[in-house]
Structure formats: C-alpha cells, structure tokens
Amino acid sequence: MHRFTRPRAHASIRQCQSTPKAARGWVGIAAYATEPGAGQAQTAPWCRSCRWPTWRWQAVAAVALSLALGDAVAADSFIVRTNYYPVTGSSWAELRQAMAANRPWKNGPEMHGRTDWHLRWTFQLEETAQGARLRAFDLTTTVTITLPSWKPPPDADPALVQQWKQFFANLKRHEEGHLAIARQAAAAVRKRIATIQQAPTLRQLSDQLHAAAQAAMAEFRDRDAEYDRITQHGLRQEAWKPKGRL
Hints:
Elements: E1 2-3, E2 8-14, E3 28-34, H1 57-68, E4 73-87, H2 92-102, E5 114-128, E6 131-150, H3 158-194, E7 198-199, H4 202-231
Parallel strand pairs: 1-5, 4-6
Antiparallel strand pairs: 2-3, 5-6, 6-7
Helix pairs in contact: 3-4
C-alpha cells in the first residue's frame, strides 16, 4: 500500500534593505513543498519595511553564500527509512489479527505494509540583465516504508514460518515497487527543472519551476495509484495472504 498526499507549494520573492549586509544587492526566491497532514505549512514572517516575506537570517546568509559560488548548484538527497511494527502469534489467524491491531494506520482496507513518500524542493533565483535565472535547486526525497516484524517462537510450526517468510518477501517486494516510483518521480522533477533555466522575471521563473515540478509529481502520483490498482495493493503479488490455510 502507498499513501501519498499532494504537496502544497509556497514561494516568496524578497528584496529588502533589512537583510544582512552580505545578502544585499540580490533578489532571491525560496520555494518549497510541504505535505499536508505532517504539520502546518511553513509560513514566512513578514518584513515591516517592505511587506515581503522574510526568512531567518541564517537562511538568508546561506542563500547569499550559495549565490556567491557562481555557477548553478544542484543537490539531491534521497532518504529511505524502514520502520517495523511487532506482531505475535502461533497461527496465521493470530498473526493476521496482530497485524490489524498493531499496524500504525487503522483506517482503510486490510493492508499490512505501507510506503509514504514526498518530495521537497527549494529554488534560488538571481535577477540578471536578461531577466531571471535559476542559480540553485535542491531536491529532497523522503521515503518511509513500514512493515510487520514477527519473531517465531522456538516451537513455531515450520510450515507457518515458511509461509511467513514468503508472505514477508512478497510484501516487501510490493513496497519496493512504491520506492522505485518515488525514485522515478525525483528523477522526473530534476529532469523537468533542468529544462527551465531563465525567464523574463523572477515571478515567471518561479511559476514555471513550480508548474514543472508539480506536473511531474502529478504524473507519478497517478502512476503510484495505477501500480496499486494493477497489483490490487499487492494481492496479485501474493503479498497479503500466504498460499493455502493453516
């Protein structure tokens, strides 16, 4: 099973004399996507003098340093976490009951594994004589896979142990399919952003970059849903129930 919530994007443009001296003289843009439900969307405080959103001085200084590097900078970070929830039992019925009771999510169909992923991106733009150009783009992909964990007791039925191993392998394989789609989504966002380097204004460039990233996200969000539909959330991969009955 995969759960993905469409991210919300936020952007701000600033050119303010209240910035640190090292950061003055340039127009920067910061844009990011946050996942609803994972906390409140980030909000930038407003500058009293220019009424544009301002950022913490540490962030401004970091952007200024990045802009001082000259050529455009691109950075990717792909983080994968695997969490396990415990289950106990001496029969398949008991194991199934334990998975239903102990899995972190309670709503929805009977799914024993889950993959959550989201992308977060930041842009750094520079005003030029020709308009605006992209100076740096950072992309962070975070994937969390949640699976059940069963430690067979010493007197466990060997047939049950074998069926659990097969069940777990198939379940993990299904969730790794969602992981692969997350990697493809990150690559697609990066590829689309690479085609947009300049625009007449900062606002236009910001809008184009966000539109490109969101379009890629929408494509792979649909692909993720299609993956679950085709596999029936893993049923066709024999991930949810072992063959036969104990």
